[in-house]
Predict the structure.
Amino acid sequence: MQELIAELKKGSGVIRIYLEPNNKNFLYYAVVEGFMSEVTGKTSFLTRKVSRFPELLKLLKLHFNKWYELELVLCSKFEKDIRKSLIGEKTHYSSQLRILDLFHHLQKEKVIDVQQAMRDYGVHKETIKNDIYLMREVLEDDFVHIMANDLGNTYEISATDQFSFGDAFALLLLIYHNQSLNLNEVKLLQKKIINQFSNAEQYRLRTFFQSYEYYYHEFVSRNLLPDIEGIFIAIQQHKLVSFTYKKYDGTYKVRKVKPLTIILHDKAYYLVAQEIENGKDSPSNFGMDRIFDFRVLNDTFIPGRDKDRFQPGKYANQSFNMFTGAVITVTLKIQSGIRPYFFRRFPSGKIIREDENAFVAEVEVAGTEGIIFWILSQKVDVEVLHPISLRETMKKLLIDMLNLYTD
């Protein structure tokens, strides 16, 4: 049988807290009427049932930013815990600790409520305003401004370069859709990203991405982030790296290379590097999921200068489908209907001429193997005009494909 153990009110709103026996233990929950939740947006609801009373108080604080303004009108159990939650828990803070805590709160919640801060820290209104003034002096050197509302009751960060809730949402979408890391690393990145926000915003992000997490498909089982960080450090410090590489035939070979960049392609990370032993001028691509025993060596290399310097952005545009080879210019005739898809694949493509039905464009690619796969995927919407050797290769491929379906 449930038991009403506490009731809190403000105006017409009321929160009733209940205790319910559960075998040899108890469950605690609250019935809310007339207060809008900061998490769900509902004004009347039943909280989830929890086995520890402090956990219920924490849950209610998450739902209501104005929790401290409520009045306890009835209580038969846990009165000390409830009253402690309704008053400031930081009244013992020194001035330095209070300012640091206010700054941390401002970073997470993006706003400081002066009345709330007065209750939290047990200090006068002018003390809170003076703390904010001191923070302003420091932060404005970094172009971060703390602005007051018209009444001076709240202060907010107004910097446009702050990492926003929308930024976090977009970044997490990219991480989940790429599926290039294992689930443990994805969950680690998600935790680091959303921990920068308020409890309510964290709840919204976690709730939205629950389905993405549940249906996440791993294309790689081992952790890649440590190796990715090691490669970045090696590139910055111009150091050679070594690793054991698993080839497609299942054999292994130890490689010693000069790291140049990392490319993300088709749900996989690739190390772009120049091999030391084979004497090739063009870089090679190594799938990160097939790299083992990665080590940053003490041996260093001299990076190219000026026009000889490796350009990772340019290389990413040219190494289509991660095939390598000499850079060549390919001229294509493309139907206008797939124009957006063409520039999504070839962002640096250059249009030579066009009419209402089609356009002719030039693209630079490293070798022809990668672009052949793309041309075939476009069916009759793309025609190779130049070089002639690629055009002849396409003819032969199409004849060979036709022969597969000749009875």
Summary: Residues 388-404 form the longest helix (17 residues). The mean pLDDT is 86. The domain at 225-310 is CATH 2.30.30 (SH3 type barrels.). The longest strand covers residues 252-265.
